[in-house]
Each structure stands twice: as C-alpha cells, then as structure tokens.
Amino acid sequence: xxxxxxxxxxxxxxxxxxxxxxxxxxxxxxxxxxxxxxxxxxxxxxxxxxxxxxxxxxxxxxxxxxxxxxxxxxxxxxxxxxxxxxxxxxxxxxxxxxxxxxxxxxxxxxxxxxxxxxxxxxxxxxxxxxxxxxxxxxxxxxxxxxxxxxxxxxxxxxxxxxxxxxxxxxxxxxxxxxxxxxxxxx
Length: 186
Known about the structure:
Elements: E1 6-12, H1 21-35, E2 38-44, H2 60-68, E3 71-77, H3 85-93, E4 102-109, H4 115-127, E5 131-140, H5 156-181
InterPro entries: Flavoprotein-like_sf, FMN_Rdtase-like_dom, NAD(P)H-dep_reductase
GO molecular function, one term: oxidoreductase activity
Pfam families: FMN_red
C-alpha cells in the first residue's frame, strides 16, 4: 500500500510588480511534483487579499488551504535584509494552521541569496509553533541564475531541491503521525 502524498502548500511571498517570485515558484513546484511525495497547492500573496487590520473578515479561503496542508515551502525574496511585508501579513493572520507542521524555505535575492530573509522568518515560525527544517534552496543574483526557459542554469539547484523535499517529506509524515496520536498542546 503506498502512502498518500504530503499536501504541500507553496507560499509565494512577494507581491511586488515585476517580481521574480513566480519564476522561482514555478520551478520549485515542478521539483515537488517530480519528487513524487507531494500534492502541491501554490498560494500567492499577490492574489491573497487580507487587510492589514486583523478583523477576521475574508480569511476563510486562505485558512482552509493552509489548514489542509501537511507542510509548507515559503518562496521569499530579500527586501531590505528581511522578508516582504505582504508575506508577514499572511503569516500574522493565521496561527493554528501553521502549528506542528514543517516549513522549508526557497529564497532568492542579491549577494546573500535571500538567506537573511530566511533567518528572519525562522523565529516567526517558531512563535507560530511550526518546525523549520535545515535544508534550504537559495539563489544569489537570481535573475542570472535562471535561463530563458525558467530553469536554473546550475544543476546543483535540483540537488538542493531534492534534499529539501526529502527532509520536508520526512518531517511532514512524522509530524502528521504525531498530530494523529495526540493533540498539539498550543
């Protein structure tokens, strides 16, 4: 009997006009599909309309998709040595949806490849009771790291994505099993 696929929510974390995030997200979603252990749902912060004031209105469709996920991958650029405000707004709107689930990061940016954004996201997810995994994929100078076909020019990106997905699948299955055995004490 084969295991059901891990329900993976890929959160595209940039809403800027002219953003590079969709290129990275499309590539990563293809990697997750090829991996074979995941059913992928892409949520784009540019398409999520949540007001800054958290009054509970309009959050239900996003909440349902996040709640359904067994694991998350956040695609984030680095803006001013951190992550985008639109991404922070989506994170802050929800709490229980993230709890006791694994989170991985794919980042991009200038010289740091978005890794400073990732380091700022880790304590936010810790506060949300999510488990961030060690493996990441990052692209420094991202525009020059992808060809016209939307694929990375360096084959090492695929190797890094596979390592991330292998680890994420392990954590997703382990935490899913734990949530079934006992309720998470939030």
